[in-house]
Amino acid sequence: MTLLTLCLAVLIAQIDTSVVNLALHSIGQYFHTDVSLLQWTVDGYNLTYAALLLTGGLLADLYGRRRLFMTGAAVFILASLICAGATSMSILLFGRVAAGLGAALLLPASLAIIRVCWPDPHARGRALGIWAACNGLALAIGPSLGGEMIHSFGWRSIFLLVVPIGLITLVLAVFSIPESSHPGGRHFDAGGQLSGAIALAALATAGIEFQNAPSLAAFSLAITAIAIAFFIRQESRRGEQALVPLALFTSPVFNGAMIATAAMTFGMYGVLFLLPLSWQKEGLLGPAGAGIALIPMALIFVLVSPFSGWLTERLGNRPVTSSGVGLIGCGLLLLAVTAHDESMIAAEVALILTGIGMGLATGPLMGVAVGAVSAARSGSAAALVNVARMSGATLGVAVLGSLFAIMGSNANGLSTAMAFGGGIQIAAAILAWRTTRPLPQQTG
Q1: Among 269, 319, 320, 388, which residue has the least CB neighbours within 10 Å?
Q2: Cα–Cα distance, 317 to 256 (Å, whole number)
C-alpha cells in the first residue's frame, strides 16, 4: 500500500506534464494569446518545480516526509482546480506555478519515503524500479487519454484528470505511510533557497531563450554564475545546517549519479520534444499518429522498469546503469543516422532502445544517488537528483531544439541534434561505469 501510494504521486505529476502540451493550441485559441505565453504555461510549472525542489527535500527532512507528501498532493489538487476554472491567462499561469510548488513538495518526499521504508538496498532497488515504471505509464496514459478528453470535453478537462488520483493518494497516505523526519539540528536556509532558486531559474531561462533572445540568455547565464557563487559561499558558512550540505558532493558515487541522471533526461526529453515535431513538419504523421508512435517507447519503459531492481541485485549497479544510459545513446544515434528515412521502422527501433534504456537506468540511478547518503539526508539527496533530472530535461529541450532550428528545422536538424544528444548519453554511460559501485552485500 505504501508503494502504491507513492506510485500514484508519480502519476499525478507526470500525467499532468504529458497532457498539458496537447492542450496548448486549444488554450491559445480560447484566450487569444501568443506563443510566448503558451510556452510559459509549460515552463511556469517546470521552473517552479526545479527551483523549489531543494526546499521540498529539506522541509521533508525537517518537518516530516508524510506531512510534506500530503501537503504537496493537496496543493497539486488545488492548483489543478484553479487551472480548470481559469478565466484568464494570468489565472492559468498562477495555477501552473502552484502546480509546480505541489510537485516540488510531493516528489522529493516520495523518494525520501522509499529510502526510509526500504532500508535494505536490494529491496529498495525493487521498489524504485516499480516507482520509476510509473513515469513510463504516465507517458503512455497521458497523450492517449488526454487527447481524447480534449476532443470530447475541451482543454479544461485535462486539469481535472489528476484530481481523483490526487484525492485517492491523500486518503491512502493517511493509512499507509509512516511519518519520519531527521532534522539533525538543521533549519530553513533562506539565503541558500533564494540563491539556489535564482540560479536554477536563470539557467532554465537561458536555455529557453537561447535562440529567440540571445542577449537575455547571456544575461541569465551571468546571473546564474553570480547566484551559484553566492550559493556556494552561503552553504559553506552553514556547514551541516545548509540547505544543500556541500559534503554531499564529496562522494564520487553521488556526483556520478547526478550527472548521469541529468544526461539521461537531456537525451530523453530531447527525443520526446523533437521527434513528433519533425514527423509533423515532414508530413509523415499528424498529432494523433505521432502520439501513437511514441507509445511503444513508453510501454517498454513500463515493462522493463520493474525488473531494474532485480537486475541490479544480480549484476550490480554499474552494468545496469551504464548499459541503460548507453542504450539511450544508441537509440539517439540510430535516429541521427536514419533521420532522412521515410520509413518508420528505424525510428521505432530507436524508440524501443530508448525505452529499454530508460527502464533500466531511471530507478537504479535514483537509488544510487539516494543510497549514497545517510537516511538523515535522504530528502535532500532525493531533491537534488530530481533537480538534476529537471535541469537535464529543460536543457535537453532547449539545446537540442536550438540545434534543430539552427540546422534548418528539418531532417538535417534532427540528425545533428540526435547525434549531439547521443554523444552526451555515451559519455554519461562511461561516467556511470567509472563512478558507481556495487551494492553492499546483505549480512545476517
Answers
A1: 319
A2: 12
